[in-house]
Write a structure and sequence with these properties.
single chain, about 160 residues, three-stranded antiparallel beta sheet, about 25% helix
Length: about 160
């Protein structure tokens, strides 16, 4: 397939709501702060991750997307949860219901994020639980994922 999966689907259904599979990861530093990405498209802080391509596992998606959005190569420590009951719309009008696989990650080398920026990421920063609670630009979905991570209390059925 010459074009990516989302572009292919959107060529068929336009902006109509579709179910898309995502995978992302939570990477904590030695102080217990987690790495968040300031997204270019929505200007919100979020857990790094992205859409699964055809033929790709959720774990491979997580590692690929995390690297693309942070420049940090990672491996998974464990699958934390799967979230299936969130809907959102993108600035271009695309509507989705998301299926999100969230992994706990560890970095494969030193983390150098100070000057990282690309077409998807405006900024990267580590945040504590308290600092995240003060941010006004974190989606309800990501707030839930982060709260479950910090409390180590994962509820099935989201």
């Amino acid at each position: 397939m010459a074009q990516d999966y989302i572009s292919y689907l959107r060529s068929k259904v336009g902006h109509d709501k579709i179910i898309l599979n995502f995978a992302g990861g939570i990477l904590a530093n030695d102080e217990g702060k987690v790495l968040l990405q300031l997204r270019e498209d929505k200007k919100t802080w979020s857990i790094p991750g992205g859409t699964m391509e055809l033929g790709e596992s959720s774990l491979d998606t997580c590692k690929r997307e995390f690297f693309e959005e942070t420049g940090v190569a990672v491996e998974a420590v464990q699958l934390l949860n799967v979230y299936t009951n969130f809907e959102e719309a993108y600035p271009n009008g695309d509507a989705v219901q998301t299926v999100v696989f969230i992994y706990e990650l560890k970095a494969l080398s030193d983390i150098a994020i100070e000057n990282f920026k690309n077409e998807e990421t405006l900024k990267l920063q580590f945040f504590s639980r308290e600092e995240i609670e003060q941010l006004d630009s974190v989606s309800a979905k990501h707030q839930l994922m982060l709260e479950e991570y910090f409390t180590d209390s994962f509820t099935m059925g989201h």
